[in-house]
Amino acid sequence: MATRHSEEFKRDAVRIALTSGLTRKQISSDLGVGMSTLNKWISIHRDTDIVSTEDQNLAKENERLRQENRLLREERELLKQGETGLQMIQ
User: Residue 75: inside a domain, yes or no?
Assistant: First the structure.
């Protein structure tokens, strides 16, 4: 039997999908809905005002910070590799 979700649940799921930075697969799994169901809700609610300007700005900032964090991790790994190489030379 199919589970009926409230409109509030659907809107919250769409907001999470559009602002969290998580994959849709992860979100659908966490919420216990199918990925195709989540995608359908997103396509229906995408053009509505579900996601506030503040949420959009936070999502953009989160994405920027994730990219910066990824870059810093890569740089740290390169530095670690360089230190290991210097220790081997000495």
Answer: yes
